[in-house]
Structures are given as C-alpha cells and as structure tokens.
Design brief:
four-stranded antiparallel sheet, 2 domains, Aspartate Aminotransferase, domain 2, eight-stranded mixed sheet, homodimer, Aspartate Aminotransferase, domain 1, 16 helices, alpha/beta, 408 residues
Chain lengths: 408, 408
C-alpha cells in the first residue's frame, strides 16, 4: 500500500515546538515554554453547575446538532461585547467556530489558492503559519517593530509580490499582545495598515485571542473598529477568557465573507458543539463577565510584573540583549546577541532546569535563531523568580562560551 | 471592498436540503426529512452527572487544551470496541475528531489535490460530497445496487479515469445502512471492492456512522476487518450512539495515513474539545455501553418496522415504485417512476402536511430526480402511520396527474 497524498500533505510539518516541549516536561524543570492559559482562571464551579443543568433540562439544545453559523443566543451577546470595543458586527455577521484555530482554517480555505500570498509578522503565531500553509499559501514575513509592523516594508513586500506575478490575498496580524512577541500595535500603525490594505484592496485578518487580557495601559481600538470599508475579519476565542478545553470561538466580518465561511464550515464540521456553545450562552446570561475579566487580568498581571522584574534583575546587560514589555497577553519575547543560537542554548537551559520556546519557528523567513518566547501564564511567582534567575545564568554562560576565543 | 476568494469558495454551495428543510418546519407537518438522531436516545442523566463531576474535579483534563490525536483513555476503549468488530487499530492508529464530518474534511485535505478523483455511490452522503468538493475533487458516481456498488461499473470508472489522465485517489462508502439509501453491502461485494482497491492501489474510506445501529440480520464484517494490506480508513462518530451535540468521533487507519491526519488536524483545530472527550471516556468506563446500544436499537427498530408496514399499506403499487428495507440506521429510500419529479412533488406533500428529502442532491451525476429519502428516527409511531398515509396519497395524486393526458 502506497498512499498517494495531496501536495499539501507532503510538505506539512508538525510544530517543532511540540516536539521540543516534550524535552521540557521533565520533573523539576521550571517551564516558560508552554503557552497554555492558567486553569485557575477557568470558572469551573459555574461551568460544572450549568453543564449539568443544560444537559439535564435542555437536552434538545445541548445534545442535538445545531446550526452551522452557531447559536443565536451566543452570537447576540458576542455582537454586543464586540460593540463595546467599537466593532460593529450584527449577529448575522458572526459565526461560532471551534476556537480560533478553526477560524484560521476557515479563512485559509475561503481565500487561499496554492501560491497565494499572505503577509505575516516576523515573528508570527505558529498555528496561523500551519493553517495558511495547509492551503499551500506562500507566507511573506514583514518585520515587527515595537509598535507594530514596519509599514514601509509591508508596502514594499506587497509591490514585490505583484511584480513577481503572485496574488496577495490578506494581511494577518495579532495586534494586541501578540503571540509570540507580546507586541501591541499603536493606533497610528493600525490606521496605516488599513490605509495600505485599502490602497491594495486586501483583506485584513485580525486575530484577537488576548484582547481582553490587558494589564496596563489604555486599549487601542481594534482594526475592525477603525475599518471603514469592511475589509477586516476578526478571529476571537474563548480559550483564554472562559476555558480552552471547550474549543469555542467566533469569526466576525463582512457579510459576504461570513456567508462563504459558513458554507465552508458546513463541509468542515457541520457545526460546533451545541453543549460548549450553551455553556458560553449561560456565561453571558448569568456570570459577572466583566468581573471575571478583571479577575483574570489581575491574576496574570502580577505574573507579568514578576517576570519583568526578574528579567531586570537577572538577565545579563549588554548590547543586543532586550525584551518586550507586554501590556497584556501571556508572552514576552527576548532577543539575544546574534552569536547566540537559542536552540543550541536550550540544552544548557534544560540542564539548568529551566525551559523556554525557541524563536526561530515563529519566523517564516528563516530568521530568529537568537530569540526566545517566555510565557508567564502558568508558573507561580516563586517559579518565575527562580526560573528567570536560572535563565539569566544560562544566557551569561552561553555568552561567555560563544565569546571565548577557545570556542571561536 | 472586493474579496478575492479562492477557487473552492467560488463554487462552494450550501446543501439544498438545508434550504428545503426550512419549508418543512411549518407547524403540523409530519416530517421524515431531517436526519437527526432521536434525542430520547441520548443518556442525559448520565452525561449531566459526569459533566459536572469532570469539570469540578478534573478541570485540568476537561477545561485545558489536550493533544491533537486525542485522549488516550478514549482511544484505548475505542480500539477495543473496534476489535470486537474485527478491526485491528491500536490506539496510536486512532485520532479523535470533531465528529465524522471532520474526518471527511481531514481525509479530503490529506489526499486531494484539485481535480483528483473520488469514487462515490449513487446516491452518496451529502456531507461527504461537500467535504471532497471543498478540496476541489472530481466526484465520479457509481450506481448502488441492493447489496452495494455495481463493481463492474466501479472498475470501468477507474479505468476511464486513468485513460482521461486523471488521478484516482480513493473510494468512499458507507457500507452499513447508508445515508441516504439505507443499503448494506454484502460480504461478497465488500471483498470485491477491496480486491479492486488492491489492484488499483487505491485507499478506501469506510464511513460507519450507523454501524452500531443494526435492528435485524447478522452484521457483515467491516471493510477494515476484511482489509489485508492496510488501505482502509475508518470514520466513526458518537453522534448516533452517544450525543450528536458533543461533535465527537474518530478516524482510524494505517499508521502512515493517521500521522498525516494528525499533522493536518493540528492546523485545523489544534485538538477536539477536552470536555466532550472526557464525557466519552466516562461513558466507556462506567456506562453499560452494550446495554445502551441494545436500547437504542430497540428504540429505532419499532419505528423502522412501523414505517415499512405503513409503506406496504399506503404506497401505491405498480411498476417503478419500490423502497429499500434497511437492516439498521435511520433512513430508507423510495424510488418512484421516472415521470415523477420529487422536488416538484414536495410542494404537494407540504400541502398535505408531510415532508421528505428529495433524492437528487445525493447524486453527483445529476440523476435521482424520482427518488426521496425518508427518515424514521424522530417521528412517533402515530406520526409514521399518518405521515406515510398522507405520502401515499400524495404519490397517488402525482402519478395520476403526470399520467393524465391533460397534463401531458
């Protein structure tokens, strides 16, 4: 038997990070590698109670199939929640998805023919890279600066794409507290991005898994709120705000696009789980959603502060060593001098019982060998203090090693 | 804004049936149209209890992300359950999916480049048609006889495909109580199909949503149990055996194929809901699964018997009028004389307050205008009796109308 796979399958690769994560799962390792939300933030008493109630007393709505676009009593409060943030999507412009990874799969299916170009940040969320590559897109990376993409380079990349006879389809970004970099786009850059998208007639895919997790500073309007001509598609997930295990999210966008998304979602999974949708319906109906968000933010804020303080304390100082100071989300990003290869250094880190995620897989241009992602979501404050102390030592040792003449 | 969709999107259509179903949702209509399982078969007391217990006491396993391949404590009992049916898939050859529609999406992604050929029955399950067309496959229909595909025509179709320079990829079938026809393949035809697949080096996709729902007769071995060289991929779903709203199923197959499926599932949704998986884990651990299946079968058996008896009683007799006598599943299939167009007749049926699903959308060759699908899963025994009486009258009137000289 010799299965004849599709072209996309021949080149599909699993995330390197997943493989490296196995290394970091040894006992006593303090890991900043996993990007999982802290289960302490999931409202389990509430979910347990409403799950039992819904299944027992509302089985027709929880245990049976539901519509492909998702339950209206969930799309309605989502529409209002989005509106609080300046995004105007009536319920018929919202599709419930099996979390935002499915949103990525659906935008890829709806827009991408083989060879079509998607513009992404350097670095970019890996799940997006995988979803777009599965539809055989060509990904063009544009450097991220502290306040968002280098827009000059974006415009240049789009022109070069057209000159090469390729078809640009959309720009993908996580403008708030990006995974992996922790960067938030300024309003000026958001407007600049939309201006370029308008001029080039491109769709913008705005992925906002962390938008509700802001710990300091003032919210910047979403791209979808600044959008004047209906070209922004929003991906939202409940994974960080309710519970990741529900696999529940939403896609919102222009009506014409949303209709196509629903058509292709029908072929993808018929519908998202009725049960998990009903749990979210009850969450909006009965739970103190705003108080819950504040509680989650407070929970992560101290961890973020602790990690930034520890980095200040323990990381070697010097040229080429810097890290982002995210205003929200779960991640921060460390860049080391060019001589450092964080993949090679990971073995040393594991010897020192600390782990991170190497940066290179987040770069579609082969760069990022000297970068790493640190997650502050799951470790305790004590682990953050001790883990960053160990990491500082690892970096210092590695710097000494690569800079010593014997090693050169 | 002028979104530039992918080629697949331009031709994607939502199911006609969904649109027609809206017609049938008027009050007082007895509908045999929907294909939904009867919610009375879902063990809601059990599910309510374990859902609350799992969320409260096992939140790390229910509310957090899980692995892409799915929870091992679910793949293990599934492996044993499959083995009872002669199918030898160790847990590492099983992937948990978001029900079998996702299984269809994943086999389509793994195998199909645009223009590749899939062989399907005439008629075929619509969700499969949609999933394969979303990956731009060319679907070639092969007539179904009472005991399975016309294998001579299948072999001929494969030869013609190769002669035309096209690439055949796999054969798709629902060998037990097919949706829509209710047909079950004989063992002889199953062996014949595998023989052809072997000769032509094709994969076989065996979709078995109804396999556990056998009401009469002896089980015929699954294709996967007869397979000698690892070319059968099995799609299973809990939608009919536990609860459709969970969106839970499994794909099993040769190791090499399953690995590719896991890689592409990662890009599709990261993982299937941890919560719904845990409910199924507990179902296998604590519930009387065999007794539950017997109960479900008993529940549907009387409905099937009632519908067959009512058809015998009320349908006009005559050449060209026949229906299948399914040994399980949820559906039976009625063929009427060539002059009848069941889509046109549907309006008359709705006037008579009875509804069915037209057959044509299940045919990839444009045929089937004179056929219809009847589901006996959701109606009560009284509704079945009265609904089939009305349907018999509708058919009699339509026959009279098309055969009267005034109408000619």
């Amino acid at each position: 038997m010799n299965p004849h796979f599709a072209e996309r399958t021949k080149s599909a690769r699993r995330s390197v990070i997943r493989e490296l994560l196995k290394l970091t799962e040894q006992p006593n390792i303090i890991s900043f590698a996993g990007g999982l939300p802290d289960p302490a933030t999931f409202p389990r008493e509430f979910l347990a109670r409403v799950a039992a109630d819904e299944i027992l007393n509302n089985p027709g709505k929880t245990l049976q199939y539901t519509t492909t676009e998702g339950k209206l009593p969930l799309r309605e409060p989502l529409s209002r929640w989005f509106a609080e943030d300046g995004m105007k999507f009536p319920p018929d412009q919202i599709v419930i998805t099996s979390a935002s990874q499915q949103g990525l799969d659906l935008v890829a299916k709806v827009f991408l023919d083989p060879g079509d170009v998607v513009f992404v940040g350097l670095p970019t969320y890996i799940g997006a890279i995988q979803a777009f590559q599965a539809m055989q897109a060509r990904l063009v990376g544009v450097p991220l600066e502290e306040d968002g993409m280098d827009l000059g380079k974006l415009a240049e990349a789009i022109r070069a794409t057209r000159r090469a006879g390729l078809t640009p389809k959309f720009i993908y970004e996580v403008p708030d507290f990006q995974n992996p970099s922790g960067i938030t786009w300024s309003e000026e850059k958001r407007r600049g991005l939309l201006e370029i998208a308008r001029r080039e007639d491109l769709v913008v895919v705005e992925d906002m898994p962390y938008r509700k997790l802001r710990y300091v500073g003032k919210p910047v309007p979403p791209l979808a709120a600044l959008d004047e001509d209906g070209r922004v598609v929003v991906l939202f997930t409940f994974s960080k705000t309710l519970a990741a295990g529900l696999r529940l999210g939403a896609l919102a966008g222009p009506k014409e696009i949303v209709e196509k998304v629903v058509t292709l979602k029908q072929a993808t999974d018929l519908c998202t789980s009725s049960l998990t949708q009903r749990l979210a319906v009850r969450f909006f109906q009965e739970y103190d959603v705003e108080g819950h968000m504040e509680k989650i933010c407070a929970h992560y804020r101290v961890k973020r502060d602790a990690m930034l303080a520890a980095l200040e304390r323990y990381m070697p100082k010097g040229e080429g060593i810097r890290w982002t100071k995210p205003e929200g989300g779960l991640f921060l990003w460390v860049a080391l001098p060019e001589e450092i290869d964080t993949e090679r250094m990971l073995l040393k880190a594991i010897e020192h019982k600390v782990a991170y995620v190497i940066g290179a897989p987040f770069f579609v241009d082969g760069g990022g060998h000297n970068t790493m992602r640190l997650s502050f979501s799951s470790a305790t404050l004590e682990q953050i203090e001790e883990g960053i102390r160990r990491l500082g030592q690892v970096v210092a040792e590695e710097l000494a090693a690569v800079r010593s003449p014997q090693q050169a």
